[in-house]
Amino acid sequence: MSVELAIALILAFIMIYIFLINIYSILFRITGLTKVKARFQAISLLTNSGYTTSESEIVTTNHLRRNIAIASMMTGYIFSVVIVSLVLNLINAVSINTSKISYSYIFIAFGVFVFVILLFKIPFIRRPFEKLIELFGKSLLGKHKKTNIITLLDSYGREAIAQVTLNYVPIIMKDKQLSDINIRDEYNLNILMIKTSEGTENITKMTVLKENDIVIVFGPLQNIKKLFLGKEE
Question: What is the pTM of this model?
Fold first, then answer.
């Protein structure tokens, strides 16, 4: 393998690696992780670096995230082997063909690499790509319109602060005021904030949740899932 081809392949695989990080980050976000945590999980799993902090519980306690994690670890392992192999081939090619290296070809390859990476930094190019992956991911993971999305903002042992996007209002809450539901006593949950299409609203006993509302809830994570998803994971 020539030096030029080895460098071009390494850059191509690094580019694909970066795209995979973005793809898996989007998939993790679909399951309810914040953007920062989703990216952290994707990078950790794809690079096979591993981690032993409580952050890992976010993945291991959810079956969808576990499946995504398995896929990303397998993908990361394959790409790691390929890239290491290409680097070894590059070292071997450089030692043999030092005098025959085409530096102009290498500069062009680096230029194309940088151009493509910067191109995807532009919002109007990046957003359609993210939307496409998001639509595909929701279809793949079974996240249709009538599924509420729970985004874990922070956790404190069994307690959590979560953002719930209401694509539908659970039957127990539909057309009812918060005072009639008694969420605090029955589920040990506190609704901290509600954001509607008109902006943030103050929470009162007369508040009624509606579709497309965004709710910030504090309490046991399993109870949040039980109330807003109708199940425990």
Answer: 0.62
